[in-house]
Prior knowledge:
Layout: H1 3-10, E1 16-20, H2 23-30, E2 37-41, E3 46-50, H3 55-61, E4 66-69, H4 73-83, E5 87-89, H5 97-106, E6 111-113, H6 117-125, H7 131-154, H8 161-174, E7 179-180, E8 185-188, E9 209-218, E10 221-230, H9 236-254, H10 264-275, E11 287-289, E12 296-300, E13 313-322, E14 326-336, E15 341-343
Parallel strand pairs: 1-5, 3-4, 5-6
Antiparallel strand pairs: 1-2, 2-3, 7-9, 8-9, 9-10, 11-12, 11-13, 13-14, 14-15
Helix pairs in contact: 7-8, 9-10
Amino acid sequence: MSAAKELSEWLADERTAALITSDLSLRHLCGFGLMRGLILAAKEENFLFVTEGEYEFAKTAAKDFTVCVYSNIKQLLDLLIKLNIRRVLIESDKMTVRELNYYANELHCAQMITDDLLSHKLAMLRTVKSDSELKGIQKAQIVCDKAYDKLLMSIRKGMTERQTAAMLRGFLYEYGADELMPRMRTASGENSAKHFSKPTDRKISEGDFLLIDFGAKVGGYCASMARTVIVGEISPKRENIYNAVFCAVEDGLNSLREGIGAKVAQSVAMATLNNWEIDKYAKADFGHGTGLDFSEPPYLEQGSPSMLKTGMTLICGCELTAPNRYGVKIADCVAVTENGYVNFTKATKSLVHI
């Protein structure tokens, strides 16, 4: 069943409709991007409103919708009256207050429902990916892998974090990225211990951990990864810390499969770090979903009620920091299967020296 049909069946009754206005939700429900558009999902029929220039394409491509050319808000009001709609659910996490006031005033025949019900349902519908979506995410990860490989061949001691970040951005665009993940990190030395550090003028030096955390969007779909490389040589103690994170990631990944709780992988990874007696500074969660957004449900953390399903795509990894000294992070982009997972990230997780 398509996401659009599932949304219609989910609506409480014939007098309840859902108004979809965000680009992300439009893309997911329609299966393609629009310059401008909106959806009114009702119990018996879904309506897609588009510009005149996109009408012919949408009419052919949007199989689960009655496609209409949008002219003005009165057109939407007339439809609500015709369908006897009395309640309209909105995307509470996407619609601005200004937009809400506009629709509430213009669509005065119906009550705007502003709770999180619709936003949560749309997020849940996106958790399991179709085959075409999985291919889109895999394509984005290929771009990430290629850019990372080229960065390793280009980076040198004495370069700054800013220079490293600029090179990585350039390589990502060179290999086909449309957009880059916000808050990309190229953090060295003590800066690698800061979870949300920005690239600085600090020079990459002998003995540093260099943490590289980045992602790309290609054709509307996202992928990301993280690696930590060694600059020159490091002490046996720090190498031991890296190996502990490596093992925790591997053990967490190997626990993935359909039917387990989303919190299980996090528990497994933390147990591994505990066995190495270095879990004190580990970041608590093991990962999150990815797709049309870089971070979306499910969240692999303690207390998560989600169950893993075949077709979920996840960014899974561990991060461990010693404040003001160093940080290590390793993360892969994977897809859950019935009996395990498929790893879209091809870059080695073994220790790399530059």
